[in-house]
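Help wanted!
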Amino acid sequence: MATESSEGEEEGKITGGNLVLALDDDLREMGKKAVWSVSSCKTGNGVSSLRDDNLDTYWQSDGAQPHLVNVQFQKKVRLQMVALYVDFKLDESYTPSKISIRAGDGFHNLKEIKTVELVKPAGWIPISLSGNDPRETFVNTFMLQIAVLSNHLNGRDTHVRQIKVYGPRPNPFPHQPFQFTSTEFITYSCVR
Amino acid sequence: MEAILVDSVQNSLRHFMYRNAIFMCERLCAEFPSEVNLQLLAGCYLHNNQAYCAYHVLKGTQMPQSRYLFAISCFQMDLLKEAESALCSANEPGAEVPNGAAGHYLLGLIYRYTDRKRGAIHHFKQALSADPLLWAAYEELCALGSAEEAAAVFGEAAAVCIHKQYLPNGFSPQNSDMSSEDQNLNSARRSMDDVSPRQLKQMLGNNARDVAGSYHGTTASSRGSGQPLNGGSSQLSLYNTPSPVATQLSGAAPPPPCRNLQPNGPNLSTLGADSSPRSTVNSTIQAPRRKFVDEGKLRKISGRLFSDSGLRRSTRLAGEAATNATTIATSVAGNGASNSSKYLGSSKPSSVALRAVSIRKGHSWASENSDEGVRNEVTDDSRFNPTLANCSCPSGDNRTFDQDGASMPVAGPVLTSAKVLTGTAEVLGLLRLFGEAYRLSCMYRCQDALDIYSRLPHRHYNTGWVLSQVGKAYFELVDYMEADQAFNLARRTSPYSLEGMDIYSTVLYHLKEDMKLSYLAQELIATDRLAPQSWCAMGNCYSLQKDHETALKNFQRAVQQDSKFAYAHTLCGHEYVSLEDYENGIRCYQTALRVDARHYNAWYGLGMVYLRQEKFEFSEHHFHMAFEINPCSSVIMSYLGIALHALKRSEEALMMMERAILADRKNPLPMYQKANILMSLEMLDEALEVLEELKEYAPRESSVYALMGKIYKSQNMHAQAMLHFGLALDLKPSATDVATIKAEMEKLHIPDEIEDFL
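Answered by r_m:
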């Protein structure tokens, strides 16, 4: 299980999962501004099932591994976290086991930024994209690719029920060097 | 049979049994088709919220009252052009507006919603001078930003106007005042022709009792509008009399009967003798019906303070003063001719009111008519003929009573006139307070407005309306805690009232009280699902939880409920901007401004959008417009400063920040922005000073420390910089800022390490 990792990335084993995705207040979902595509899918279980906010519908791949989910943005965005909903109890051999996340400008220059290994996950799996360096809290990119490298019990195809991509909230008040934290500042900083 | 049907209809209307009223009225119109009956039918439909029915019933009618009802139906169906042409047709530019003050008010609203601000202002002013108790018109003037001071509007002229409605002869010492009130009077001049709805109502009411006789007589000689009936005609003509008279009333100056009397001087005198028998026969039938229908309309249009009491009073007065009027009239006969010209310009309001009162006098008309007939020659303006003719009489009366002041020259109505005086004074005093406070709060001079509200007597202060206005004033002053309290009290006093609750939801949004806000929203929706305020509150609730899409849906529902509710549009705009959909945001803000050009929130919103899009010129312009409307808001001032700074006009920016700091000591933001500007101007020491001061005001704001750290770093004071960056991090800034600050800290380390190595 050699993992290719660029400097600063680590391989991690993640067990379990959360039923409810707990988010920081300063994260917001960025997927709506992106174009989503998959490498292959079975009829009726296409890419729309990944984004329908319905945990009963899932995407089922239908080809050779690795299975890819591509998220392409119109402009460079800062991303901080990817969250996947997978369930071993429901999907067994379809549950992804090794996942690689790549980023880049397009299909030609994707570079892996994170690898995780899941062990019998059940629920939301948050994957942080930050590096160790505080300067690398966010990944600034045009495209993100989530690759399912292998499944549990060596299954060929994979089921993923939902994927969400998160980035930081922009400063609600333009032209400020820093965001405000105290209530006095926030109260006085806008007219509603 | 007709009388019975009419009675039944009116009875049903009185008891709010609209289906019955409509049915009976339709039978009435089928049996006796006449325009008057059509008016009654339209009235029934309007009561039952079926404006479209009224529209079709009244289409093409010409009588002033019909035109007025038609205009109301058009207005409710949003057919503003038709409504306008009904009220003042383009072919007759000089024609009078039906129903006086109410007609002007409706016209004003139409002009306002069709974006003709000056026309709207003109009409509202006329409405007010015709009926000084038409508070709604004053409210609209304040909203348009061009209201005069309340003391002037609800002052002497208004008192005179009201007096005239109640007392046949102007006894109050108006003459001396009138010259001083010339301005008001001159503006009221033209409007005096319009009947104040109240006067109209009262007159109608009185007509029911005693005036009928003269009434009928006058119709014959009426200004030519309506049917020219001659007195002495059969029952049919008598039956018709009230309506034409009524229409006269609506179309003409305050006392239509009076007006009719004017030109009919000679006629009246002949008819006067006959008046009494006729009145008893017909007035009772006709007048109540007209009175009721008009009352209904008038009540709907403007809050009536005196509606019931006035009616009773006027009848009483009419009864009592009947005899007096005669004597008074004759006494001033001599003065009339000489005085009339002098009072032509100034005494119109008083004369008009007097006329109205005199109408009620019924029998007195007979004697007065001759006098008025004489006076007629004095007047030159044919249009204002009746008014002037009346004027001359009242002015004469005023003269004689000048010295008397409050006392009536006639013994009979002394008590009532005193009561009227005190009553008027009280009402006007109250309205002056309310008007001034409302005007100031519309000009956003909120502290002054609050002072005035606090001077109201407790029983008025503790009503929902006042408390929510107080809350609104605190909201504009950015004092959200006080606003919360005031609105809370308002909710407790009148839990059913939705007025101002959208502002309350915004206050709670600012205070981040999500529980209270959601409770408020639920309560409002339960009270009234169809009110825009409820949906605004709901939307604010979702917006507080950062669910901007649902919030947007709720605000759009609010817009659907009432597209003339500017704040709902602005809130939609805010949500679009949070979703980064700037085009739609701009569109929403512009819609809000179309509805209400003085809605400074929308100007501010547009400025913010352009600031984000880096179109600084536009941004500065829009912030400037917002600032002009609301020059007391420190938030707007600080944003204007930011825009100016972005345009590189830094001195102006700094001045604006200074003003913002002075305007509201509790607002820490202008100081922060000032430091920002100073830093970009490389005036680092001054910037640090400001930030040190700011630390006192807002000790737990991480951005202050972060900025200080940055400044120290640029001054190469690394220890201080590290200290402040550390403090900033301790205060838990957002992830972006954490990254930025840590990055800065890393950069600080390197010089230290190099020193270590050396």
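OP: Thanks! One thing I noticed: DSSP finds 42 helices and no strands in chain B.
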